[in-house]
Amino acid sequence: MTPPGEQLCYTDAYLRSVEARVASVEAGDSTLLVLDRTVFYPGGGGQPSDRGLVLRASDRRSWTVRAARKAGGEIVHELEPGDSDPPAVGDVVRVDLDWARRLALMRTHTALHALCGVVWRDHGALVTGGNMEPGSGRMDFEFERMSGDLVDSIEATVNAELAAARDVRVAVLPRDEAFAIPDLIRTKVNLLPPGIEEIRTIEIVGLDLQADGGTHVANTSEVGRIHVTGYESKGRINKRIRIELVDPVA
Prior knowledge:
Elements: E1 6-7, E2 17-26, E3 32-35, E4 37-38, E5 52-56, E6 61-71, E7 74-79, E8 92-97, H1 99-123, E9 127-133, E10 136-141, H2 148-163, E11 168-174, H3 175-179, E12 198-204, E13 208-211, E14 226-235, E15 238-245
Parallel strand pairs: 1-4
Antiparallel strand pairs: 2-3, 2-8, 3-7, 5-6, 5-8, 6-7, 9-10, 10-15, 11-12, 12-13, 14-15
Helix pairs in contact: 1-2
């Protein structure tokens, strides 16, 4: 079996561009490209996929990547419909992220982990769902009751933790070692496939440690501050907290 292309989003979230070679092309309503290496994140765990460009230096052609996804272990790049004459297998191209969007998602994702860390540490509430867009997101928790005072307290505590400039570390651990970590899975339902041999973890040092596959900033100081924009009941013991980033993208 041919090994998949290099998926650099998982090892260097700050890498914005890389030269690559086209490994396969599938034509259809949208052209699908597989490259031998890419910086695109394919989406997952509530984080949307990256967007950006594929550029061919030989004739200065460019194509818009409107989405990316995982398929058969590869990251597949979906080109904007209507782009004619897609790259060919073997072409050397450069892939460029929409960096402002990626950075906003990195900051948002780290902010949500800080929220999760505070809620778990201070209230012992498991996560029942979550989603994000650049600059905003929401998480659902197992709370029986929620009030404005509680939400205000959570917001203040999260902002204090972000301002503490905690390092954010990525590690890939053998499955047995990862599952020996207490409370590694913060979701009510364990979404990790049973056969997976290695677990990628994200640690906000001193606050939070979870299994996670997304992209994050390297330090909580890069997030800035958050504001809780609303909270609501989604069931008897399921409450939703919505947040947005207060500070603009750096």
